[in-house]
């Protein structure tokens, strides 16, 4: 059974619906890449999964999020709070949104295991040092005593990962965890996350705009465009046979620029804001393959094996490798 099963999830903010019936699932020990440009709805998906929509004036307006068999939509806030940090953890793009600048980082990690695992102060510190060592932080005892401002961006992000792991969660949602870091550190942090998933059997939703990161880390990919999943498949399938024109354009960007960072420059136009989503297929103003029907009718998702694609003209019959 999937640890996380998201089905037809829609999110509303005021009279807008920035996420429209998105679906994906994830098993333990696996990594799902949620990929798309800025404004495609990736971070909103993270907020929805973590039960944080009320903090930004949003709500789930339809669909289901099941975690280990429990429906999370409409879960009581106190039960969601118990899940967050203990069974599900969020890693954000900017470590400083998670770290208290006034507290030593060791104390911040210790607090998580004291709160969620009931450890004593001594036990929590020992566990924090063990986590820091596992995250390949040299001289963990010194780092444990430091304040965030004494650290590099890459080190701060490792501390945030240590905090996320301290409650022994089964599911981690990492929202662009390496975007603010330089390329070498990015690759190291992603590899740490991959190793944690493989070694501990965690499930990871890795939110990124970077197809290079997807190729490095993920087992399965869901491509978001303007609040809809337009294609999902195994990582092998998506790179070997991208079927949606948007996915094809994302991958062509990397091939053309040779940038592992997956710059999305090169796809003409921009992701529309939620107030100006196009009718029919939301990608049609940017799609080189668009036909008249694309303006009028939203494509229905079609499936074949692991592939799901929402395009009127995408071929489901794929060549065999
Ligand atoms: Fe392009 Fe039409 Fe397919 Fe949308 S449905 S991706 S506009 S061909």
Tell me about this structure:
With 321 residues, the chain is α/β, with parallel strands linked by helices. The chain has 11 helices and 12 strands. The strands form 2 sheets. An 8-stranded mixed beta sheet has the order 6-7-8-3-9-10-12-11, sandwiched between helices. A 4-stranded antiparallel beta sheet has the order 2-1-4-5, covered by helices on one side. The longest helix has 18 residues, at 183-200. The protein starts with a strand and ends in a 12-residue tail after the last strand. The mean pLDDT is 91. The structure holds iron/sulfur cluster. Residues 244-245, 281, 283-284, 287, 289-290, 294, 299, 311-313 line the site of iron/sulfur cluster (SF4).
Summarize the structure.
The chain is α/β, with parallel strands linked by helices and 321 residues long. The chain is 35% helix and 22% strand. It contains 11 helices and 12 strands.
List keywords for this structure.
321 residues; binds iron/sulfur cluster; eight-stranded mixed β-sheet; four-stranded antiparallel β-sheet; alpha/beta
Shape: globular
Summed up, the helix count is 11
Please tally the β strands and state the result: 12
Give the strand order of the largest sheet, numbering strands 1, 2, ... along the chain: 6-7-8-3-9-10-12-11
Topology as H/E string? EEEHEEHEHHHHEHEHEEHHHEE
Q: Into which percent range does the helicity of residues fall?
A: 25-40%
Percentage beta strand: 15-25%
Q: In this structure, how is the largest beta sheet organized?
A: 8 strands, mixed
Structural class: alpha/beta
Low-pLDDT residue spans: none
How far do the termini sit from each other? Answer: 28 Å
Residue-averaged pLDDT, rounded?
91
Rg computed from alpha carbons, rounded to a whole number of angstroms: 20 Å
Q: Which cofactor or ligand species appear?
A: iron/sulfur cluster
């Amino acid at each position: 059974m999937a640890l996380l099963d998201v089905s037809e999830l829609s999110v509303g903010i005021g009279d807008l619906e920035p996420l429209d019936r998105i679906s994906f699932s994830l098993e333990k020990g696996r990594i799902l890449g949620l990929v798309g440009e800025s404004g495609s709805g990736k971070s909103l998906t993270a907020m929805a999964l973590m039960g944080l929509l009320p903090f930004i004036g949003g709500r789930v307006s339809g669909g289901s999020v099941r975690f280990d068999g429990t429906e999370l939509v409409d879960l009581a806030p106190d039960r969601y709070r118990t899940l967050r940090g203990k069974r599900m953890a969020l890693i954000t793009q900017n470590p400083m949104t998670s770290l208290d600048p006034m507290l030593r980082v060791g104390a911040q990690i210790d607090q998580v295991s004291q709160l969620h695992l009931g450890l004593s102060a001594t036990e929590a510190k020992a566990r924090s040092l063990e986590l820091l060592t596992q995250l390949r932080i040299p001289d963990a005892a010194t780092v444990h005593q430091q304040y965030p401002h004494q650290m590099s961006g890459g080190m701060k992000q490792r501390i945030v990962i240590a905090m996320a792991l301290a409650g022994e969660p089964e599911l981690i949602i990492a929202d662009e965890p390496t975007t603010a870091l330089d390329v070498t550190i990015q690759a190291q942090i992603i590899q740490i996350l991959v190793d944690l998933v493989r070694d501990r059997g965690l499930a990871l939703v890795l939110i990124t705009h970077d197809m290079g990161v997807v190729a490095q880390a993920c087992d399965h990919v869901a491509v978001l465009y303007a609040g809809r999943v337009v294609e999902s498949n195994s990582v092998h399938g998506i790179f070997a046979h991208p079927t949606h024109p948007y996915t094809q354009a994302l991958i062509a960007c990397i091939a053309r620029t040779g940038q592992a960072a997956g710059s999305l420059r090169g796809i003409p136009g921009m992701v529309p804001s939620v107030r100006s989503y196009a009718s029919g297929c939301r990608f049609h103003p940017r799609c080189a393959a668009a036909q008249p029907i694309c303006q009028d009718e939203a494509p229905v998702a079609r499936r074949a094996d692991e592939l799901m694609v929402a395009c009127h003209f995408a071929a489901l019959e794929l060549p065999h490798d």
